[in-house]
UniProtKB/TrEMBL annotation:
One of its GO terms (cellular component) is membrane. The keyword Acetylation does not apply. Residues 103-140 form the Mechanosensitive ion channel MscS domain. Its main location: membrane. It comes from Neisseria sicca VK64. It is found in: Membrane. This is Transporter, small conductance mechanosensitive ion channel MscS domain protein. The lineage of its organism: Bacteria, Pseudomonadati, Pseudomonadota, Betaproteobacteria, Neisseriales. It comes from the Bacteria. The keyword Transmembrane applies. Keywords: Membrane, Transmembrane, Transmembrane helix. GO terms for molecular function: mechanosensitive monoatomic ion channel activity. The chain crosses the membrane at residues 22-40, 61-79.
Amino acid sequence: MWDTVRQWLHTLPVREEVVESVLMVMALLVLRGVLLNLYLRRHPHYSIEEKRRSLVLSRNLTLILTIFGLAVIWATQIQTLALSMFAVAAAIVVATKELIMCLSGSILRSVTKQYSVGDYIEVNGLRGRVVDINLLNTLMMQIGPNPLVGQLSGKTLSFPNSLLLNHSVRRDNILGDYVIHTVEIPVPIHLDSDVIVGRLKAVLEPLCQPYVPAIQRHLENVQAEKLFITPAAQPRVTRVPHDDKVYLIIVRYASPVAKRLEIQQAVLDEFLRVQYRLLNPQA
């Protein structure tokens, strides 16, 4: 049967490689659509982030298989072209340096599993929630404008994956559904830290306490499964010197990802109230 198909391809007015390439691409697209549809139907309970993650993974796998298939089909022509282009190989490498670095960054991300769709990350000062990843760049929903706010701004940020080769990646939700969150609050040096720390603890601890047992069990499971050194689940409020004008109060707590901003805002609101009363004792 394959010989008959080959003979039929030879009779066509176009190169058989072109026909084979078109048929292969169409077959991969149809196969991807069928498999993705079956997978999502078998898991109707998946969240939008999990469905989005499956969509991105299937698209990237299809692209890789397409590139590999085209390389196999056009191997002879590519070899001939490579031999004829040997003299300009150095120029091509220079011209495609950024492309190669983006592909290398994408491979690094995949191998090390630095982040995936739905993760909160920061790279080279860019903060956001990942919504799309391809072989060349990563798309995020921006978080900001103030880093303490931590809310989605409604704008998107896109950065080339080459940044992953030269900059560290900070991922907030490495612990899955929970997060260890830290807030630094600068305080004027003349304000009584005992009063401020006491009031912040009084607000922070009741908000975090309902989640502490579940988070502690989760951290113990993560430590046993992944051999991570996990932090404590209990909330902490500490103070450290900074300079002759301010000192820093460090608020650290564990919470569900969906609750961290709510808890943070409650702590900041209380700090502003206490600071106002200390600065205006007669009010």
